[in-house]
Amino acid sequence: MRLILFGPPGVGKGTQAKLLSSRFHIPHISTGDMLREAIVAETELGRKAKATVDSGQLVSDDIMIGIIRDVLQSEKTKNGFILDGFPRTVPQAKALTDLLKELRIVLESVINMEVNDREVIERLGKRLTCKSCGRIFNLGIDKLADPTKCPHCGGALYQREDDKPETVAKRLNVYARSTAPVKEYYRQIGLLTTVDASGEINEVNRQILALLNRR
Ligand code: AMP
């Protein structure tokens, strides 16, 4: 299985990618998670990317394409992958097409998850992330006994810098301007399918599984 989950911030790409990853034993490749890990570990990449990520802007295409090249050439993705957060610009999408061709890998599907901006703003405003295991919780859905502590691993829950309301508005603008055009790119090459991601997690998952079954 070689998939891209595509859509605006907060649409649920990470949540659905994790479900598909454990069901099909295929790695979930989140470029956002990779950048956040690099920032925490204070690697050269992390130091370069921190201000950009925190402010809701996009890290440069060159850096991101380099990261994806390394991942797709690694042992980890040899039996498949679920990409979450990449590609985010048309040049990234084109570079991915070239890279897949070079590595003789066939991309099966790009699943476009759709939800309106109002819902995105509401979801991100209630999203908490675990500093230790990276799991995501939503104060509107998950019943957390203690909203400061991850119920899975006990790590500290926090609101991502870029989930703060001022930055969310900026991320939605960046999405509309730079990322949404990627949809057209995949529509034209016949890989795009769309699901309504406004429902609850299991319902969206059912739609994605039905769609994968059909392909
Ligand atoms: P995410 O967790 O997918 O929402 O990503 C968080 C942030 O990481 C984004 O707002 C960007 O600053 C950066 N980022 C992640 N993936 C990419 C990408 N493919 N291109 C550029 N920036 C990215």
A few lines on this structure:
This protein is α/β, with parallel strands linked by helices and 215 residues long. 49% of the residues lie in helices and 15% in strands.
Please characterize this protein's 3D structure.
The structure is a single chain. Helix content is 49%, strand content 15%. The chain is built from 9 helices and 8 strands. A 5-stranded parallel beta sheet has the order 2-3-1-4-8, sandwiched between helices. Helix 2 packs across helix 3 (44-54). Adenosine monophosphate binds next to helix 2 and helix 3.
| Span of the ends, CA to CA | 11 Å
Give the integer mean of the pLDDT values.
95
Largest sheet: 5 strands, parallel
Total beta strand runs:
8
The proportion of residues in beta strands is 5-15%
What form results from the Cα inertia axes? globular
Low-confidence sequence ranges: none
> Rounded to an integer, what's the Rg over CA atoms?
17 Å
SS class: alpha/beta
CATH fold group of the domain at 2-26 and 79-116 and 179-214: Rossmann fold
- Proper CATH architecture of the domain at 2-26 and 79-116 and 179-214: 3-Layer(aba) Sandwich
Q: Which ligands are bound?
A: adenosine monophosphate
